[in-house]
Amino acid sequence: MKGKTYLEVGADGVAMITINNPPLNLLSVDDCGIFSLNFSVLLSLKDNTEQALRLLLLGFWSIEFVTDILEAARKPFVAAIDGPALGGGLEIALACHARISTSSAVLGLPELRYGILPGLGGTQRLPRLVGLRKALEMILMSKLVNGDNARGMGLVDGISSADLLTTTARHWAKDILAHRRPWTVSLYRTDWLEPLPEAKMMLEHARVKSKKKKAPNLKHPLVCIDVIEEGLVHGPRAALWKESKALHELRQSDTCRSLVYFFFARQRTSKVPGITDMGLIPRKVNTFAVVGGGILGSSIATALILSNYSVILKELDEKALLAGIERVKVNLQDHVKQGKLAEVKLDKILSLCKGVLHYEGFREVDMVIEVWFLQHRF
Q: What is a GO molecular function of this protein (predicted)?
């Protein structure tokens, strides 16, 4: 059944909890929004772990349940990972005492794509398992890694084939219990962490880089960096409370709502009845014509040439055309100042944009964007 966990005890005495919440096995997805907590999955997981349910306050999931019950259990928990383990699913695995995955498994903390941050301890456990540098790359860039790469960086402890995955995880759990393998509590590991002065320099560099690459209104990457630093300076448990509070606040933000809306909008456009189910093959688009070189038209032309498309920019008269080309040039120079475009590439990129006063060349372009109409309408 979708959205549940199952507890089975094998003949070898090892209990296995299976999470089944397709398609991505996220712990925080429901029909209302991608990051509305799916309590049925978490409560079922808790029920199989502690056999008790009660009303919970903010911060419970990341601290009392994940840290105090799961991670601090007197019996070892081993995560067996096959397929995608993203967001909360991976954060639960991080709190286990070991992780075994298949080579094709996909692991990541992509929460920043949706305007929030990892809220079940991921900001604290991932740096302690793989080091701060790699953790920042995974979290801030929402980078996903396969099982083999995860093994190489210390994110998982072992690789198994899919058919032997659960058997391997069972043996691993028994080995931990028998002290044949280390009993690891991720939250309090320090062996992979860089010295504090070096870590602070890395965090400051990450802040500067985030400010350059992100729009000014995107605050959640900086909030995430602050939470990570809290753990390094004041200890991981204090940071878990800060992480939980930050998650609650970010989920209410306009940025989160907008990014979640964009995610679902993009999902819906990939399945349009009567269109996407007809087996049509999209025509390859290489060249554009943009009619109108005002603020909107020049911005569209800039985005296109930055994506290496050839663009014809049309205006009514020479004065308006020169102004439109100048706007494109200013836009590109802003990219150079922000470090998004190398200055040596400026002229080459600008050469992709050709200004015209008539409709010559329009027959050869693959798509025409009528900006005059858009400006008049909006």
A: (3S)-3-hydroxyacyl-CoA dehydrogenase (NAD+) activity
Specify whether 315 is catalytic.
no
State the Rg of the chain over Cα. 25
- Is 91 catalytic? The answer is yes
Q: pTM, whole model, 2 decimals? A: 0.69
DSSP class of residue 363 equals: G
Beta-carbon contacts of residue 7 (< 8 Å; ≥ 6 apart): 15, 16, 17, 48
Instruction: List the catalytic residue out of 71, 91, 229, 315.
Output: 91
Instruction: Please report the DSSP string for 284-314 in residue order.
Output: P--EEEEE--SHHHHHHHHHHHHTT-EEEEE
The token pair at 166 is: 């659960």
All residues at 6 or more sequence positions from 266 whose CB lies less than 8 Å from its CB, including other chains: none
Unique residue bearing structure tokens 């990129």: 349
C-alpha angle 341-347-352 in degrees, rounded to nearest 5:
95
